[in-house]
Known about the structure:
The protein is mostly helical. Among the domains are: 1-36; 90-203, no CATH class; 612-729, no CATH class; 732-777, Arc Repressor Mutant, subunit A; 783-864, no CATH class. The chain is 64% helix and 2% strand.
Amino acid sequence: MSRFFRAQGDDSSSESSSDEEELYSTEEEEDQEDQEESSEEEEDEDQDESSSDEDAGPAKKNRSRFLVDQASSESEESDVEGTVKVKSAKDKRHDELEATISLIQNGQKINDWGSIANEFDKLNRQAVKLQDGTKAPKSYIKCITELEDFLNETLAKQKVTPKKMNATNARGLNAVKQKIKKNNKDYQSQIDAFRKDSDAFMESDEEVVPVPKPTKVRFQERFVDEAAEEDEDKDFTQVGKSGKAVPFSPESILKHLRTILESRGKKNTDRAEQIRIMEQLSRVANTPYLQIRVLQSLVSARFDLGAGSGNPMSLEHWKAAEKELAALLKILETQKDHVLLENAEEWDDDEKQPVLGPEDKYLKIAGSVVSYIERLDDELTRSLQSIDPHTSEYIERLTDEGSLYNIIIQGLLYYEAIRKDASLEVPQESLNRIMQRRLEHIYFKPAQVVKILEENAWKQVSDGVNSEITPRAKSSDANQLVNTICNYLFEHSEGIIRARAMLSQVYFLALHDEYYKARDMMLTSHLQESIANFDIATQILYNRTLVQVGLCAFRKGLVYDAQNTLQEICGSGRQKELLAQGVMIQRFNQVSPEQERLEKQRQLPFHMHINLELLECVYLTCSMLLEIPLLAQTGSSPDIKKRVISKTYRRMLEYHERQIFTGPPENTRDHVMQASKALAAGEWKKATDFIHSIKIWELMPGAEDIKTMLAKQIQEEGLRTYLFTYAPFYDTLAIATLSAMFELDSSKVSAVVSKMISHEELAAALDQVTETVIFRKGVELSRLQSLALALSDKASSLIETNERTLEQRTQGSANAFSRKDGRQGGQRGGGARGGRGGARGGGNAQRQAGGTQFTGGALGAAVRG
C-alpha cells in the first residue's frame, strides 16, 4: 500500500512505511555520496586551473574558465597533438587494407574459403579507394596474385584427390573462382611485373602520374538535351558511384558493354544510369562496329525500361529508340561489309575489335533487325491501348505510326539487299516477319490512306534504292501492293503467317466492296474448319474479317448472305470480346487478374475498331427483312413455329410486343423493332421511314445508296409478307393491284411472285395473259388435325429412338429373340419404319400458306378422302 494512503494503527501500513523509509534513506545516502564525489572532482579541476593560472600570471587568476581566450585554446590543442598521434584518411585506409590482407592470408593457411570470399570483396572495395590512376597498391597486387596461385593449387588438388568440402567452403571457392579472373584482368600488367621479380616490384618507387582532378563535378539529370550536353561535357568529367573518374575511350567500350550486359535482368539495376553511360559511349565510338554494338545495346536497354511492368514504354524513350534504330539501319546501309544476322557468332574478346580477314567479305555481327522493329511496333500498340481515344493525345501518338512504317520499309530493303548474297544465309522467316508487319499496318486502311503512307515512306529512301518484292512504282496502288505482299507470303511462308496473310487480304477486299472475291477466298481457304487451332490473335482477325465480309454483302444488297455471315458473331451477344474491342462483364464468372491482364493486352487500338452500333443495326435490319415474311408464312401453325433464323432478333421482338405502351423510338433497336411491327402490318412506307431515320447509316460510305437499297428491300419483303398473310382470302389477285399497293413495277411483282411459286412458298399460279395470280384452294386442316399430325410425328420419332437404344443395349439379341418366334427382326423393324416414314417426312416438311401441302400417313389420307 502506498504511503499516501496509510491508516493509523494499521500494522501492515506501518510495516510498509518502515520499508519505504529504509528505501528512501538508502537512496538519500547514495545521492550524498554522488554529490561528494562530484564535488571532489570539481575541486581537483579548480586546483589544476588555479595552478595553470598561477603559471600564466596574475592576469588570469580571476578570469572564469569559460572565458579562455584564443591563445590559451591554441596552446591546449598543441599539447593534445603532442600526446595523441592523428592519422590521415589515406593512412587509415592503408591500415584497413593491410588488416584485410592478413585475414585473407590467415584464411589461406586454414583453407577457409568462406572467409576468403567475404574478405576478397572487401579488399576490392578498399583497393578502389586507394587506387592512384590506373595503378593499384603493391600490397594489393601481391595479395591477389598469391590468392590466384593458391586457388589454382587448390583446384589442382581437388582434381587429383577430390575431397568433399562443406557447403560454406564450396560456395566461397566458387565465388572466388568466378570473380578473381575477371578482377585480375584489369591489373594484368602489374601482376606480370610482380611475377617477373617480386622483390624488385615491391621495392620500386615509381612516380605515378595522378589523374587530373575534374574542375567540376556534375550529376546529370535523367534526360538532357544532346546538343547542350555535348557543349557542357567539354568542361566536365564523368564520375562513378565510387567517386573516381570513369574513363570513356574507344578501347574501353566493349568492356563497358560487357558489364552492362551482365547486369541485365538483375535486381537493383539502374537502367537509366546504364542508358546514360551508353549515350556517352555512342559519342566515343569511332568505328562502324563499335557504333553498331552500342546502338544495339542502347535500343535493348530502352526496351528493358518498360519490361516487367504494366505501363507502356514512355514516349521519350520510344522516340529515342526509334531514332537509334533508324541510325542503326543507316549505318548498315552505308557500311556494306558490316552485316547484322541472327545466326552470327558473338564476339567474346573485349580487348580488341574483330577485323575482316583477307578472305572475309563481310563482318558478321549477332543481332536481329526484325526483332527490334517488332518490339517497337508492339510498344506503340501498348501505348495506344493505354491512351483515351477521345483525346487529342491519341491523335498525336497515332502520328508516330508514319515514322514506324518508314523503319519497316528500311528494314525490308536491308533484308532484301543482304539476301542477294547467298553466302550470308539469311533466314526466310526474318523476311516473312517484316513483310507481315508491313501488311498489318495497311490491311484495314482505305486505299487513299495507304497511298499517302507509302509515298511518305519512300520519300525517306534514297533514289537509287528500290525493292524487288514491292517496287517503288507499284506501291502507290494499294490493291496491287496488298495483293503482292499476300502472294509473296502465300508462297514463302506457312502456318500462322500464311493464315494471317489470307485473312488480311480478304479483309482488304471486303473493305473495298470486292464481295465476291473476298467470299471466294474465304471459302477456298477452309480456315473456318481449322481456325480453332490457331492462336487467339489470329482468331480475332478471323472474326474481324468475317464481320467485314458481312458488311460488304449488306452494302451490295445481299441481305440473306449478310445475315448468314454476321449470325455467328452478332448472334452470340459477345461482339466486344470476339472482336477484341472491349472486355465483357461476366456476371457469374470471376476472372483472375492474370486473365484480365491478358484480355487487355489483346485489345485492338481504337483506330482499328469496327463500329459495334453500326454492326448491330445491319444485323437487326437483315434479320427483320428475313424474319417478318417467315412469321407471316408460318402463321399460327405449331409445328412450323420452331423454324427461327435469328434467335436474338426473335427475343427482342417478343420483348417489344410484350410492352403495354411503346413510345417513339430512341435508339437503333427501337427503330428496327417498330419498323418490324409496321412491316408485319403491311405499312411498308412507315417501316421505311423508321429505318431511314436511323442516323448510324451516315457512317457508311454511300449512305444514300444504302437507304435506296433498303427501301427496295422493304418493298419486296412487304409484298411477300402481304401474299403470305392474305393468300387464303383471295381467289385471284391482279398484278397491277399489287404494283400500285407497293409502288413496284409490274415486271418486278411478277418476278417476286414467280420466285415464291417456284420455291413452293405460295400455292398459286401466275396467269401471264390476264396478269393475275390465281390461288389454289385446298382442304384446310383444323387445329385438332394439325395437333394430331404433330403428335403422330413426335410418337414416330420417339419409337425410333427407343428401338435404336434397345438394339445398342442388347447388341443384336433382340433380333435373335424375334427369329425364335419365326419372324425376322429386320423385316419387322423395316416395315414399321417404312409405314411411318411418310408421316415423319411430311411432318418435317415445311407447310405452306393456304393449307395446300399435307403430311402423309393414314391421317393425311383420311383428311384427303
